[in-house]
Amino acid sequence: MRYAMAIDTRKCVGCSDCVVACQTENNVPVGFCRDWVVEVVDGTYPNVSIELRTERCNHCDNSPCVRCCPTGASHFEDGGIVLVDHDKCIGCGACIQACPYDARYSHPDGYVDKCTFCIHRVREGKNPACVSVCPTSCMNFGDLDDPNSKIVNVLKNRKFKSLAPEAGTKPQIFYLI
Amino acid sequence: MHSRRNFIKISSLGIGATAIAGGTIKWAVGASSKKLSGGLKSAPILKQVSTYCEVCFWKCAGWAHVTTEGQIQKITGNADDPQCNGRLCPRGTGGVGMFSDPDRLKTPLIRVTKNGEQTYREASWDEALDFIAKKMKEIAEKDGPESMALFNHGSSGKYFTQLLNAYGSNNVTAPSFAQCRGPRDTGFELTFGESVSSPEVTDIRDTRCLVLIGSHIGENMHNGQVQEMSEAIDKGATIITVDPRLSTAASKSKYWLPIKPSTDLALLLSWIHVLIYDEIYNKEYVAKYAEGFNELKEHVRSFTPEWAYGITTIKPEVIRNTAREMANAAPATIIHPGRHTSWYGDDVQRSRAIAILNALLGSWGNRGGIFFKEGIKVPDFPHPAYPKPSWSWQDTLNGRYPLAKESITNTIIEASIPAEGNTHPIKGWIVSGTNLIVSIPLKEQLMKAMQSLELLVVVDTMPMEITGYADVVLPECTYLERYDDLRATPHREPTLVLRMPAVEPMYETKPAWWIAKQIGERLGLGAYFNFTDFKEVIDWQLKQLGLSLEEMERIGVKKYARKTPVYIEPGSDHTFKTASGKIQLFSKELEEAGFDPMPKFTPHAQPEEGFYRLIYGRAPMHTFSRTANNRNLVALMPENAVWVNPQVAELWGLKKDQYVWLKNQDGVVSNFSVKVRVTERIRWDSVYIVHGFGHHHKPLTYAFGRGVNDTELITDVAIDPIMGGTGMRGNFVTFLKDEPKKEAKS
C-alpha cells in the first residue's frame, strides 16, 4: 500500500477550498495552514499562462524530516503517510528546516504540525477533507499499489511532474500538467 | 453641517473623510449571555443538521456538524444536492465564520441624541419593535403604506416582503436587478421569452464549447457552474474566454481573447456576421423557431471581423476561428449570459447579442446548451389576501425604463428624496441583508435619500456600513441558527432542501421571520403571520407535499424525478414564451418602446492619459462585501490588491506590494490605500480590483481599512434606458503614491 495524490492543474481554479476544509476538519489554528495554493504566472501579456496548484506535505518516500527528527516523533505510518507524534515532539524545528517544501509549521501548543493525509478519515475509507471538498474534483487520492485505482489510471494516462525532484526526497504528490 | 441622520461610527477613528459624529458606545460588548468557547478542539460530533448555505445566492445544501459541546465544528455539502454534489465552495466551507464572528450584531440598537451628538444605545426587542411599529403607523396614516420600501437580499427578504405586502406596499427592491443580472434577464426575456434564472440553466456539464464574456467562473464560485466547467474540461470541451484580464477561466481556455474593454458588442456582432455569412449557423433550428432572420442578416452585413478588429483589437482570423469552433460544437455550445452584466449602459443590447448568438447556434433547449428547468411548487402557508396598494414601484419610473420587469433600487432611492414633482414619495425603508453603502452606485443620491427618511430600519447579522445610518438596528441570527423557507429553486433536477437551526441563536439575535411577525402583530397584521414558530409553516408545507419534517431532517435534500423534458424532444414543436411563441431575433417589443430592435455597437469613453479603466470582479474565497470580516476566510485573502500591468508599473515606478491611493476621473480618492500587484495578467489600459473590500466601519474589526472599495470610485454611472441597469465599468483611475491630503469636512 502506498498512498499518494495526483492533482490536476488543468482543473484547479485556486479557490482554496482545500485550505478551509483542512482547517475546519483538523482544527488548524487561525493564521496557520497545512495546505495552501500556489499561482505561477509565466510569459508576457497577452501570451501569458498560469498554473494553479494546491500544495501540502509530499509524504516523501525518502523523508528528510523523519531522518532528522531527534525524538522519533516524525515517523511513517502504513501506506507511507508521514506523521508527527505530538507527544514525542519537542518542537525543536529541525524538520521544519529539513523540509524542502516548507510543509511544516510550529503549532502554538508547542509541537510541529503538518498534513496527515487526513489519516483518521482514510482509515474510515474516506478521502482526505481537501479531496472530498474540492469543487473542481481536481485532486485524486489513492493507493499506488492498487492497479485499479483512479490515481494509477490518471498517472498512466497523463503527463505529470512532482515538486523539487532534485531534492531526492521521492515525493508522493504528483501534478498532472 | 447639521443632518438628521449622521453616520454613527461608534468610536472615533481619525481616518477617513466621512466622519461626522463621534460618540462612543461599546458595540454591544457584554450584552451576551452566551459566549463562544475558545477551542473547538476534538469534542466528538453529536449530530449533523441540514441547512443550505447563505453566503451567496447559490444556496448549496449542506450539513452542519455539531459537537457534543454544542459547537459547529464544520459544514460539509449534502451529496444528494445536484447544486453542490456534496462539495461546498470555500465560502460555504468557511460559512461557520459568519456564525462565530466576534463582531456580530448582538442586541437591538436605537439612535439617540446625547449631549447634542448622535449615538446608539442598546435596546430591548420590545422597545425597538414598538418604535418601528409606531413610526410605520404614522407613515401609513400620513402618507399611506405605499411610502414604506424594502431593500433586500437573501432568504430573509421574503418575510419582510410579506410584512410590506400585508401593510399595503409592494415597493420591494433588490440590488440584484439593476446593479447585477437585470440587463441579462431583460435581454434574454426579449429574445427567448424567459431568462436563464438563478442558478443559471446553462448545461455546462455536457457542453462542447463554452464561451465566457467577462464572466470569470472559478473566481466567481457559483458552485454548480464551477463543478461543471471542470467536468467540461475533463471531457475536452473548447473554452473561449473574452476578458481584458487573464482570468482563471481564461487560463484554462483554448482561446483567450484579450479584448479592449467596452468593445464586447462589436465582437459579438462580428461573430453573428460570421455565423450568418459563412452559413454555419443552425439553419434548421432558426427556420423552425426564430423570427426576424432576414432583418438580422441585413443588419449585420457590415459587421465583418475586419470591422471588429479595429474596435476590439481581436484579430479577424481569431474571430473567424472561434466562430467556427462554436458552430462545430453547436448546438452543444453556450455563449454564457454572465451574471453581473450592468457594465456600460447598453447592457440589455449586449445581452441581446449574446442571446441571438445562442439562438443562431440552436443552444436553447438542446443538450450542452441551455436546458429547461423544473422545480417543486411549495404551497403558500394560508394568509388573508394582501390589500391592493394605490401605487407601486412602477410609478417611481416616471415613464423611464419601459421594459423593467423588476423594481429598480435607484428609482426607489430617488423617490425617497423630496422634490417638486415627486408625486410618489417614499418615507421609510427596511433594509435586510444588503449593504447598500457598498452595493449601490450614485452615493450622493443614496446619502440624500437616507437623510430625508422618516424611518430607516436595518436588519443584518453584521455591523455593515449601512447600519451606521439606521434609526433602529436589528440583529438577525445567522442561517445556522434558524429555520427558513424550503429551498425549491428550479433547475436540472427538482429538489427540496431543508434549513433548520444547528444551534440556538447567539446573543440577543433573532430570525428574520420572527422579526417580521413581531412588527406585523404590532401593526395589527397578525393574521398574515398565523404561526408561533416558522417550523410550523415548514411542517404544514411538507405535509401538503406528502412529506414529513422528520424525514427532511434526516435526508436534508429530497430529489424528485422530472415530469417535463430537459431538452426539446426530437420531432416535437417547442413554443417559446414570447408573444408569438418564436425566438425574437428582431425585437418588435424594443422597436415599439423606441429602442433599437437589433443590437448596435456604440463606442464608450476611453481613459485619458495617465488613467486606467477600473475593472472589478470576484475572488473565489469572498462574496459581495459580506465575507471580508469572516475569520475562516480572511487569511486566504485579507485585502484586495490593484492589478497593474508591468509596463504601467514601470512607467509609474510602482513596486510590488507598494501601497497606493486611487483617484478617479471625477477626483474622488479612495478612502484607504491598496497594495499593488504587478502582473502580466492585466491589460495596460486597465487595472483590476476584487470587489468587497475597503470597509470603513470600525466595528468590522478585521475588515476595517483593508483594501479599497471599488464602488466608492464608481461615480460615473451609465444607466440603461431600457430597464434602468446601472453601468459601472466606465470609470477610470490613476495612482497617488503619497497619502492625499483630505479636505476637512465638518
Secondary structure tally, helices of chain B: 21
- Classify the secondary structure makeup of chain B into a structural class: alpha/beta
Number of domains of chain A: 1
User: Could you please say which CATH topology of one domain in chain B applies here?
Assistant: Dimethylsulfoxide Reductase, domain 2
- In whole angstroms, the N-to-C terminal distance of chain B is 6 Å
Mean pLDDT of chain A: 96
**Strand line-up across the major sheet of chain A:** 8-1-10-9
What distinguishing features does this structure have?
heterodimer; A: 177 residues; alpha+beta; B: alpha/beta; Dimethylsulfoxide Reductase, domain 2; Barwin-like endoglucanases; six-stranded mixed β-sheet; 16% strand; globular
Note the topology.
The complex is a heterodimer of chains A (177) and B (746).
Chain A: E1 3-8, H1 17-26, E2 36-44, E3 47-55, H2 64-68, E4 74-76, E5 82-84, H3 94-98, E6 105-106, E7 112-113, H4 119-122, H5 129-133, E8 139-143, H6 150-157, E9 160-161, E10 173-176
Parallel strand pairs in A: 1-10
Antiparallel strand pairs in A: 1-8, 2-3, 4-5, 6-7, 9-10
Chain B: E1 45-52, E2 61-67, E3 72-77, H1 90-93, H2 96-100, E4 109-114, E5 117-122, H3 125-143, E6 148-152, H4 157-167, E7 172-173, H5 175-192, E8 209-213, H6 223-234, E9 238-242, H7 248-251, E10 255-257, H8 264-277, H9 283-289, E11 290-291, H10 293-299, H11 305-312, H12 316-329, E12 333-335, H13 347-361, H14 409-415, E13 428-432, H15 436-439, H16 443-452, E14 455-460, E15 472-475, E16 495-497, H17 512-522, H18 534-544, H19 549-555, E17 557-559, E18 583-584, H20 588-592, E19 612-617, E20 641-644, H21 646-652, E21 659-664, E22 674-678, E23 686-690, E24 718-719, E25 726-727, E26 732-736
Parallel strand pairs in B: 6-7, 6-13, 8-9, 8-12, 9-10, 11-18, 13-14, 14-15, 19-23, 20-22
Antiparallel strand pairs in B: 1-2, 2-3, 4-5, 4-15, 16-17, 19-26, 21-22, 21-26, 24-25
Helix pairs in contact in B: 3-17, 4-17, 5-13, 8-11, 8-12, 8-13, 11-12, 14-16
